[in-house]
């Protein structure tokens, strides 16, 4: 029997990158997937990949916009109607936001980063948690960032949102422990892929450098000398989602190649 057989997992931002890697890892261990996000084409592509790994019920694909409470509530309602419960909730969706000094950000840019990366997970957690409490079990995993611990120049709103996520996670861990629900967070380092490429390009523009120069500078900061892979993050999620972490809650796990060790 696979480790997550008969477990129901909802993953936001499941269409590509880290989110896709997480869903494939969970599916490979037998979990029934709920794929949530805004890019329906990408979500359906992920669903096709999962179908190649599993037989039985296909993944449930839900349109979910973290800035739209109606879509959050409808996705959770559909999930509970379809499967009766949600055992695993992975908060993966987020935006990198604008790379600029704080004093050059306008209010709308600040609000978008905080609302997407922090308020959205709050609203989704609020919608899912009552079901977990009623079943006296569950695992919530936040995907944060080492930027919340080791700030990067021109990344103030992103750093604020990810550090705020740590505070929310730890408080939830205390509040839910008595109900049998684990709450943990992963702080990825520089994760290879299109999103990192975009951030590097933005930073290069602000610093009047080239993406290649910025990438080389960032690699020099990583003791292991390589960027993290999406699959590395997925392995951390498997640990928190499974019984292997039965006594682990309120933890912030760095997966950063040694870039951050606290």
Q: What report would you give on this structure?
A:
The chain is an alpha/beta fold. The protein has a single domain, classed as NAD(P)-binding Rossmann-like Domain (Rossmann fold). It has 8 helices and 7 strands; from the N terminus they run βαβαβαβαβαβαααβ. Strands 3-2-1-4-5-6-7 form a 7-stranded parallel β-sheet, with helices on both faces. Helix 1 packs across helix 8. The protein is globular, with a radius of gyration of 18 Å. It starts with 7 loop residues before the first strand and ends in a 7-residue tail after the last strand. The mean pLDDT is 95.
Topology (SSEs and partners):
Layout: E1 8-12, H1 17-28, E2 32-37, H2 40-53, E3 60-63, H3 69-83, E4 88-91, H4 107-135, E5 138-143, H5 156-176, E6 181-188, H6 194-206, H7 211-220, H8 230-241, E7 252-255
Parallel strand pairs: 1-2, 1-4, 2-3, 4-5, 5-6, 6-7
Helix pairs in contact: 1-2, 1-8, 3-4, 4-5, 6-7
CATH superfamily: NAD(P)-binding Rossmann-like Domain
Distance between the termini: 36 Å
Structural class: alpha/beta
Give the strand content: 5-15%
Helix content: 40-55%
Helices and strands, in order, run as: EHEHEHEHEHEHHHE
Main pleated-sheet profile: 7 strands, parallel
Poorly predicted ranges: none
Work out the helix count.
Answer: 8
Placed side by side, the strands forming the largest sheet appear as: 3-2-1-4-5-6-7
Rg over CA atoms, rounded to whole Å, is 18 Å
